[in-house]
Amino acid sequence: MRAGRLQPWTLLVACVVAIYGFILGPIAITTAVSFNATNRSFFPPRGFSLKWWGEAFAPQWLQPLQFSLELAALTALIATIVGVPLAFAFARHEFAGKGLIRAITLGPLILPTLVTGIALLQFLTTIGLGRWMGYWALLIGHVVICLPFSVRTIAISLQAMPGSVESAAAGLGASPLRVLRHVTLPLITPGVFAGMSFAFIHSFTDINLSLFVAKPGQRPITVAILSFLDFGFAPTLAALSIISLLIPLLLVALLGRFIGIGNFLYQEQARG
Amino acid sequence: MAEAALRLSGLVKRFGAHAAVDGIDLAVAPGEFVTLLGPSGCGKTTTLNLVAGFLSADAGHITLAGRHVEELPPFKRDLGMVFQDYALFPHLSVADNVGFGLKMRGVAAAESATRVREALSLVKLDGLETRKPLQLSGGQRQRVALARALVIRPAMLLLDEPLSNLDLKLREEMRIEISALQRRLKIATIFVTHDQSEALTMSDRIAVMRNGRIEQLGRPAEIYERPATRFVAGFIGSINMIGARIVGAPDGNGVARLETAAGPAHARLPAGAALGAQVTLTVRPERLKLGPPGGAPHAVNSWPATIERVIYLGARLELRLRLADGAVALAEAANDGATRWSEGQTTQAWFQPGDSWVIAEAADST
């Protein structure tokens, strides 16, 4: 009886352990591989060397890395600037065509990015804007696929805020603009920054769309890594992967520390 | 008579085809505490939101101290409101929460700080200025909300079920405190609640609401002892309602003879009750007495009854009785040890004519 009751529990624990194993294992192995002294990716690493890390900071890699960072930052900024009014519209107002506009805005969330990439490529060529290919196409495409993240997160923070807080401010003599400035915006700030970091991360880690619209010489780090994979998985790539992993991690940690987006990421609603 | 602090006339608010507020007239005197009491959906909160300006009326007028405010947005109405969920600003400290209204009014920082301190001390929260709302208990949040509403010295205080999120003991404490504060500040107040005991203990007058209308407006004792309708009688406290017919003309004290299924009765009539009319005879359980077991029946309003159940309430006993016609009646007796009641015992249930009240509605109507 006792063993029978324990079995499902044991199975669940095993599953959870396995899931964490598969999350952390690859990261651990990749990290280890990047310290190989040989020029092949052995695990366990043969010898210890920092030369691949040195290699990873060569201009060949720093340039796409910087490109990716700039692209992601600009994408996140635009997605947020466009996302805030859209989120207000979706969360607060009823208007004709709302369902359709919302579906179009959030569509890229469920559409394979690969499809969006091919479609964008086709579209720009067809309407004669093929020369936009490269940076502008990348930026437009990234904003399109990142916008749902900021809109959704901001809309959720608006909906989570009890409406009575704004009524209370109005009752205390605050005009609608001052309610927005002193109450609404401060309260959705964590949501705005969470949405911004989601957009940043999604842009920074995108490869599907970038693969189609990036021009040689203006390649994001992900595309650069993929191209280099043709020559085999060198330890440099391991080091680069870890760098690409650390950047979003650092961003989330910083925002969590200073703005408290942690509540947002981990669904701990704190209300007053 | 002084100008009313608030006057509502012919107030109507519809949501689609449904009239949530369906023609309300009400005047609140300066310094008066008026409670809007009713079940959920009766329109009490909608009425409050109309006064505050969060909703706009479809018809009717709202005047605050003689000034029409229907067209004014909430932030120009100068009212202090306390919300059911307190609606504190979670990102601001207690002091900034309380000082919010002063800041919006452009009160200088030094004066504002003094007034915030005074307001916090008024609600006994001295020293908590720097806390955030999340670090406060429910009762403390309630006090902050109250201080925030009062510090702006509003023309009127609006309280939207402010006690419903507190536990029982705290609720009873806050009842007394809010009442005392309101009396001291002499601020006209509208209090919305569905809790009859809050309404009875705190109000100068109670407006019992139902389906968007005021069913009865009066002092707590009037509402309790002379309910105008069966709804009001049933909503506040427990009550015995017995179908009756007026068979005699009222005497000098307004007491007339009635016929009921349980037996004849003498009871006080409301003005305008016609001979022969079908009415409802009401007696509160605490006014329904039980004859000493085996004793002689009293002269009037005395019906044989069987005690079906004795419910022990500590200081009091609730007795469920079965009358001769099969109807159930409730009586309440002090648990004074003088008489022991037991289930199955037969006795006489009786009441003084002055302890009853007749409602001019037939028993089967609602």
What does this molecule look like?
- Chain A has 272 residues and is mainly α.
- Chain A has a single domain, classed as MetI-like (MetI-like fold).
- In chain A, 75% of the residues lie in helices and 0% in strands.
- Chain A is built from twelve helices and no strands.
- Chain A has helices at 2-33, 51-56, 59-92, 98-106, 113-126, 135-160, 163-171, 176-205, 208-213, 221-229, 235-258, 262-265.
- Chain B is an alpha+beta fold.
- Helices cover 23% and strands 33% of the residues of chain B.
- Chain B has helices at residues 44-52, 94-104, 109-122, 138-150, 168-185, 196-202, 220-225, 230-235, and strands spanning 6-15, 18-28, 33-37, 59-64, 67-68, 79-82, 156-160, 189-193, 205-210, 213-218, 240-246, 255-260, 263-268, 278-283, 289-290, 302-312, 316-323, 328-334, 346-350, 356-359.
- In chain B, strand 17 (316-323) and strand 18 (328-334) form a beta hairpin.
- The longest helix of chain B is centred in the middle third of the chain and has 18 residues, at 168-185.
Q: Sheet bearing the most strands of chain A, described?
A: none
Structure annotation, total helices of chain B: 8
CATH topology of chain A: MetI-like fold
The CATH homologous superfamily of chain A corresponds to MetI-like
* Total strands of chain A: 0
User: How does the helix and strand content of chain A classify structurally?
Assistant: mainly alpha
